[in-house]
Design a protein that fits this description.
- This protein has nine helices and ten strands.
- It has one domain: Beta Barrel (Catalase HpII,  Chain A, domain 1).
- Strands 1, 2, 3, 4, 5, 6, 7, 8, 9 and 10 form a ten-stranded antiparallel beta sheet that branches.
- A hairpin with a 5-residue loop joins strand 6 and strand 7.
- Helix content is about 30%, strand content about 25%.
- The protein is an alpha+beta fold.
- The structure holds protoporphyrin IX containing FE (HEM).
- Protoporphyrin IX containing FE (HEM) binds next to helix 1, strand 2, strand 3, strand 4 and helix 3.
């Protein structure tokens, strides 16, 4: 204790998932791919970001399984939510990142609560007396089972939908501001039954994507859900009503698996707070806490 929250979060993850040198404290198992993003005309009306100019923007992306366990079977329930991190390489040489996962909303509202959740997990080994610390945490935080109820194992990283969860603020050329949450939607969602997922080969998701890309590119639709004035932008555990307008921001085309993905992923750092003019943080403090924790994890995996 007495350490910054960001350090405590990574320490708790290390306790729950074990310490695996060179690997991420969370989303340890992943695969790196490349492609490009092309914005829709509507996007430029919402944000003046260079990302939305309509020019083709090269991207590096990493799909991942949850947890800090690098050899977790992809079909394990614990591998949910699956994640995707996208680094957009802008014309001026800078990058902006979007780091999202398949939960429709976060299990808890704040970084402090997430630390409590991880601590409860660390204190609930298989032989712990019932109800375990984690069971107690879950029964006092109904958003935990609700959030995990929104995920299932996909048959492919390409057939999953990913959600931004934390809100950001778009600023357009006129200076108008709009709070948004990202969505990255596939052409079709395919989820497996739990019993089917458990039977899949341990690396079926990591192996499937490069195979699929040999047949042709995979596309996703980047969208923004627009907040209404009364929607909270600082509680990632509260989804906004489904009736809110959703605007297509553009199409992400993934066309290439990176051959030496295990090497490349080590030096990649995706930061949810790495933004560019026209995209700003909202009042959600979780994005800064995430940024700090990702940096701690990065420095430990690249000592
Ligand atoms: C306080 C809340 C959170 C904490 C403390 C946290 C912590 C972490 C850490 C330490 C890593 C490893 C980073 C690295 O070594 O590069 C990570 C990765 C990741 N997190 Fe989070 N996270 C949080 C919330 C979220 C949320 C809300 C999302 C989705 C919207 C998310 C999605 C991801 C993804 C996709 C990765 C993998 C990034 C990559 O491929 O490099 N996390 N997280």
């Amino acid at each position: 204790q007495g350490q910054p929250l960001e350090e405590q979060l990574v320490n708790s993850m290390n306790k729950v998932f074990g310490v695996h040198p060179g690997m991420r404290a969370n989303h340890a198992k992943g695969i790196v791919v490349e492609g490009s993003f092309k914005a829709s005309p509507e996007a430029a009306g919402l944000s003046r970001a260079a990302l939305f100019s309509g020019a083709a923007i090269p991207v590096t992306a990493r799909f991942s399984d949850s947890t800090g366990v690098p050899n977790l079977p992809d079909g394990s329930d614990d591998a949910n939510p699956h994640g995707v991190a996208v680094k957009f390489h802008l014309p001026d040489g800078s990058d902006t990142d979007i780091v999202i996962n398949s939960l429709k909303f976060f299990p808890v509202s704040t970084g402090e609560e997430f630390r409590e959740l991880l601590t409860a997990l660390a204190e609930s080994p298989a032989n712990a007396a019932k109800p375990t610390k984690f069971e107690q945490f879950v029964s006092s935080h109904p958003s935990v089972p609700a959030a995990f109820g929104t995920v299932a194992t996909p048959d492919s990283f390409a057939d999953e939908e990913y959600y931004g969860i934390n809100a950001f603020t778009f600023v357009n050329k006129a200076g108008e501001r709009q709070a948004v949450r990202y969505q990255m939607l596939p052409e079709k969602v395919v989820h497996l039954e739990k019993s089917d997922a458990a039977k899949r080969a341990p690396d079926f998701l990591m192996n499937e994507l490069p195979e699929r890309l040999k047949q042709g590119p995979v596309t996703f639709h980047f969208k923004a859900q627009l907040a209404a004035a009364e929607d909270s932008t600082k509680d990632p555990a509260k989804p906004w009503p489904e009736s809110r307008k959703v605007v297509e921001l553009g199409v992400l085309t993934i066309d290439k698996a990176v051959p030496n993905s295990d090497e490349v992923q080590k030096s990649l750092l995706f930061l949810p707070g790495q933004l560019t003019d026209g995209i700003e943080q909202s009042d959600d403090p979780m994005v800064d806490i995430r940024g700090g924790a990702y940096a701690v994890s990065f420095s430990r995996r690249n000592p």
